[in-house]
Amino acid sequence: MKKIDEFTPYELATLANTVAVIISKNLDINQQNVIGNFILSMGVNLSTIASQSEYLFKQEKNKKSDNGD
User: Fold this and answer.
1) In the predicted model, is pLDDT for residue 68 greater than 80?
2) Closest Cα partner for 12 from 2, 22, 23?
3) What DSSP state is assigned to residue 6?
4) The whole model's pTM is what?
5) What whole-number distance in Å separates Cα of residue 39 and Cα of residue 20?
6) For the segment 15-45, what is each residue's pLDDT rounded down to a tens digit?
7) CB under 8 A, 24+ apart: contacts of 39-45
8) Is 27 in a helix, a strand, or coil?
9) 4 to each of 43, 59, 68, how far by Cα in Å?
């Protein structure tokens, strides 16, 4: 089985769509909203963590290059 970072963008979109349909089949509208918002919140938090990590990494890299390291 492929690792998540080996999927093409189209495969990831298809996978996300398939999982959403499978999950939503057995849930009522309110449950779909709760699960959807929860997953959306996780995505936003993952993006925030990734962007801050990248920012701090670049800051550290710039600091080292400014010091001649």
Assistant:
1) no
2) 2
3) G
4) 0.72
5) 10
6) 999 999 999 999 999 999 999 999 999 999 9
7) none
8) coil
9) 15, 28, 37
